[in-house]
Structures are given as C-alpha cells and as structure tokens.
Amino acid sequence: MTKLLLIESPGKLKKLGQILGSGWIVKASMGHVRELADDGEDALGFDLEGDRIRCRYSPRSDRARSILKELRQVVQQVSEVYIATDPDREGETIGWHLAQELRLNQPFRITYNEISKPAVMAALANPKTLDQNLIAAGRARDCLDKLVGYKGSKHLVWALNNGAKSMGRVQSATLHLLCQRETEIITFVPQDYWSVWVEYVEGFKAFYRAKWNQKKDEKSSEPDDAATKADTVQESDRVTSQAEADRLVAIAKSNPHQIIQVEKKTVNQSPPAPFTTSSLQQAAGAKLRFAPEFTMKVAQSLFEAGYITYMRTDSVMLSDQFCATVRQYLEQNDPDNVPAKVARHRSKAGAQEAHEAIRPTDVYLTPEQLSSRVNGDEAKLYELIWNRTVASQCRAAQIAKTRIITQSGTAFWEARGQVLIFPGYTVYWNNISNDSELPNVQQGQAVTLKQAASEKKQTQPPPRYTEPKLVQLMERKGIGRPSTYSPTIKTLKERQYVELTKGKLQPTQLGMELDAFLAQVLPDLIAAEFTAKMEQELDAIAQGKLNWERYLTSWNRDYFAPALAKAVGEIAKVKQSLPKQNRGKNSAPSSEKQVDIKCPNCGMQMTKVASKSQKLKADHFLSCDRQTGGCGTVMFLNVKSKTYELPLSDRKSAPTPESLSEYSCPVCKQPLERYEYTKDGQAKVMLRCCNPKTRPNKCKDVAFFKTKQGNWWSPKFGELK
C-alpha cells in the first residue's frame, strides 16, 4: 500500500520524492493551514472559561481550504500517514492542525535535521508520536499573541487615531528598545575631552595612562557577529580640559622617557561556534548586508535543496559524525589546522537545542563547487555557513601580544600591539583585529621623543541599532525566539513604526508616539524583562512543566484583563499628557478624512483611516473618532458586497423576527435569515444561518441564492425544499 508523507514547504517535494521513491506520496501543507477564527469576543477565536480554553479554528485562506480538501482525498488512498513538518515548536503545531483536520488517529511523526537520504531513512525507521507539550506551547503562543494583539490594538492603539494600527507582545517590546535608544540619542549632551599621546623615534606610539599598572581584561570575549569592523581605535585615558592636556604635553616634552615595563605573552583565541539562527542573521547582516527576513528566505532555499541543515535553531552543537567528517576534511586539505581534540562549544543559557547548529550537509561540497548550482545570494550565504562551520572545528588562533609602559616625569604612557603568529581558524573566519607590531625593546631602555600632542574630541551618542545588532539585542534580552526575530523586525517596518536610515533602524514619529503611549498605559507589557519571563514560561510549557490553559487563563485573569481595563480608563488623560508631535518625514501620515457614513452605534460621522494591514481586503477602514466625541467603533469594507461592516464580534447577536425565513439551516437547524447585500451595483438577497456564533465557522458554507426560477439554491447543499 502507498504511504503519505506530509511536509510544510513545496520546495522539499522534489528532493524528498527522489529519496523515498515509489510507494510514497509527498504532499505539502504550504505552511500553516489553520488559525484561530476571527469570531467571538474581540474576534479572538477562543473563549476563556475558568481554567480552560475553548479554541475555534478555521482554514487560514481559500488556498488552505483547497489544500485540506485535497489532502483529505489523498488520506483515503493511503495505508499510513507520516507527518514530517519542521522539527520545532511551530512545525509540531502545524502537524497537530493537520492531524486534527484530516482526522488522523495516532499518525507517525518523524523529524530530520537535514534533507539527505540517511537522515530521512533514519527518521522513518524510528517514528514518534506528536509531542503534546510542544503543541501546547505552540497553541499557548498563538492564543497569547492574539489576546494581546487584538485586545490591545482594538481598545488602546486604535483610540490614538494617529495612524498606528497594532501592538503585540514581542512587537511592542522590541519597538520599546528602539525608542529607548532614540531617546538616549535625542537627550544626549556631548562633552569635550582630549586624547594625549607621544610618538617615539624607535617607531611606536603610546597613549597617556593615569596609572601605569592598570591592566585591561585580556580574556578572549565571545565574537560579535553583528560587528562590522574588528579594528578598534586606541585612545588615552580621557582628559577633560585643555589645560590638563597642555600640562601633560609639556611634561612629555620637558622630561626624558624611559621604558619601565615590557609585557609579552601568547594568547589563544578560540574558534567561534557554528551558526544559530540569531548569529547567522547577525553575520549575514554585517558581512553581506542581508536583512534578517531575507537571510531566512535564502537559508530556507538552501535547506529545501538539501545543502544545509534546518535553519531555525538555538543550538551550537554538531553531531559526532559530522565533526568526524570535518576533521577528515581538514586532515586532507589543511592538516596544520586539525585540533588535538574535537572542539566543543557552549550553548547560551535557555537554549532549547532541539537539533544541530546550522551547517552544510556535506562539508566536501565547497562553496566553489556549489556556486554553479545556486544563485548569487544563495552562494554567498552558503559560503558564510561553510566557512563558519569549518572554522568552528579548527585549532585556536595564536596571538602574540605586547604591552610597553614608558614614563616621562610624573606621566605614564602605554603602547599595545599584537601579531597573529598562528592563524588557526582565521583561515576560514577572520574576526581578529589587524596586526599592530611593536619594536623589540627592553625594560630600562631610554627612548627618544619624536613628538607629543593632544587631540580634542567629543563624546558621541550611542549609535542606532542595525538590524543585526537588534537581533543580537533581542536574543540577549530574551525577547522572542529564533523564528520570531526577523518577522518582528519586518512587521515594525511594514507598520511604519521604524525605518532604515543609512543602514540603521530609526523609530518614526509614529513609532515614538505609540511607544510613549504604551509606556504610560501598559508599561509592564513593553518591558524586555516582562516579555522574557513570558518566553521562559512558554518554554516551561514545551517541557511539560506547566499547563498551558491554566497558565494563560491565570495570566489573563491576574494581570492582563485588569491592566487593560485600567489602561482603557486612562486613555483620555494619557492622550492629553502626551507631547504634541510634529509630523515630519519620519512619521506615517494618518490619511484620515470624514466620509458620509454614520456610526451604527452612536450616529456620529465616520472617519476614513488609511491602513496597510495585510489582514484587510482594502487600504483603509472606518473609525468613529473618539477625539471628536465618537464611540471608537470601527467598520471594515466587504469587497464582495462593497459595503462597510462591523467586526463579527460587534455585530448584533440576533436577527430581527422580520428577517427570519420559513427554512431551517441544514447544519444547526436554526432558522435561515434573509441577508441583503449589493453586488455589481444591484441589491440582492441571500439566505444564511441566523446564529452569529456558528455562522463564521460551523455554518460558514450555509448560503442560498435565488435562482431565475425563484427557488433558493446553494453550491454546497443544493436546492431548498
């Protein structure tokens, strides 16, 4: 009998089809197939009932509905179904949704970290069941994000009436980091200072030190993948006045100079760890100028083609088998770089380590060999991954460091230099500053002053974050997870809360206004520590240590619901206290104007508000402006009927008796109601289920239209009798 393998991405179909051969059908879900329905209170799609959560799901799109229909037919034709969605929390949740929609009892669950025949066949030989803890964490995240996003946006953000469209649990915390930095820049007051230095005939430059025996920490720090330059500018201890700088220069010129200390040592610089999702985004941004979302898109292509392992991971671990293969490669091609023992790298605290680090599936497939098979961007990213992976398994680099201390009168001067004496891993991944060689001098030796001078400088404000630096910061602060870094940044840009200015993320006026507002009404929710704690609690759910329903209901009952209610009550007062902002090029235009439509709730004239939200089928929505005495009601354009409608959650719960027909709903047996709409400029009538609770989901296909013969007919249920 034929077997079915269910995957997410259609990009893997060809490769997996070749691996499995005959007797298998491989089908792709095209990512998520279901999502929480947009019904119920505030269109959440779920109800909080005591310590339980009742979720209602619906197909994500017409395409998803069509895919599910096709998959149901295929399931009837096969003997076994294997779910091979991505090996992470999100993939596990997608697998659960597929099992639910296709009514699969105990489907086989397989995971693999690379699309190769050995990995796939090994997974098939050891199938598992769906991990209910991971599914619980995925469902909890979905509900949590929608609870915060939908309720916060509707009841708080829309009340601003400034063009802001949404807030989010991770989104708003990330925006707050950017706005905090922008505030630091705006309020920064530069201070003058002087760097004082001397230059010697012997061929080196030394900088003023207040204490001759002060030492800097020489420990090798973790490489900064988001850094664009490895070189650092040497300066003296800061001198805060011109008079003091002149005094030090005078001392240097009027006194003999002597070397009082020479320090020489050799230090080992350990190789960097292989890439995680975060460090890949950082390095690709710094070295290739790739935006995080573009990095992940290119990495997805490489993964689907079988060239790299799964690209969403927080692990720096490599399999023993792969490490042995890299060692073999080095023995054949770079024997001087073979370490005495296999390099091991320490993961960051809180890493889930569900699978390996990002690496090539075959180390013998060099970047040069692959370049002819892929496009330019794929070739660049593969080279980055290949180089970093090989570097992680090489010998440490050896650096000879020298420190020279000289003295003139009461002043001390320091020179530092370093020379790379064994390149080690830097052959593949160079993250060490350029050589700065000092002459061979001895303690007690007199040196001859060539010149002494000072340079006036100014302190600089902290820099804005690049996209790689923001990803790094989100990881360090515990905001989001590897899969959410790039979508979060993308959303902030699409909402016009931030923009790229000379390669740096700068909050727009709109973003600053929104952050200032949320900082007053919901300060906890935008704090990095608060968001990080929520991520830790989701991790605890994934580990089976916390019940997701009890966690979410208690979180809403004890914190969010009261905090939101309090915030709603303070909106008017807070809006008045916010500083009036000047709209410039960094602000999103509100594009608001009154339209000739009355609010169905209070009768005030509605206002047209521009929107770029992908959730809407139009480029705008209508709002009853609170600033002009309105009630805050919103309405959305129904593109089919070309009429504006209230959100499902705000519509009247019961039809009028006059609208009820003599016919019953074929699904729930409730009466069918007459529903008037407009199509192509003509007024029309249809029959639909009168129950607003079941109409968006259970009875969504119940729709009867009048035929030329005067009968009622439905594409799904046929003619009414």
Helices and strands, with pairings:
Elements: E1 3-7, H1 13-20, E2 24-28, E3 34-36, E4 46-49, E5 52-55, E6 57-59, H2 62-75, E7 80-83, H3 89-101, E8 108-109, H4 117-125, H5 132-160, H6 169-187, E9 192-200, E10 204-209, H7 242-254, E11 257-269, H8 277-288, H9 292-304, H10 320-333, H11 367-370, H12 376-392, E12 397-408, E13 411-422, E14 446-447, E15 449-458, H13 467-477, H14 485-494, E16 498-501, E17 504-507, H15 509-521, H16 528-542, H17 548-569, H18 571-577, E18 593-598, E19 605-610, E20 620-623, E21 634-638, E22 643-645, E23 660-664, E24 671-679, E25 682-689, E26 703-706, E27 712-714, E28 718-719
Parallel strand pairs: 1-2, 1-7, 7-8
Antiparallel strand pairs: 3-6, 4-5, 9-10, 9-15, 10-13, 11-12, 11-14, 12-13, 16-17, 18-19, 19-20, 20-21, 21-22, 23-24, 24-25, 25-26, 26-27, 27-28
Helix pairs in contact: 3-5, 5-16, 5-17, 6-14, 6-15, 8-9, 8-12, 8-13, 9-12
Number of helices: 18
Shape: flat
As residue ranges, the low-confidence spans are 582-591
Beta-strand portion reads: 15-25%
The number of distinct structural domains comes to 6
The overall pLDDT average reads 87
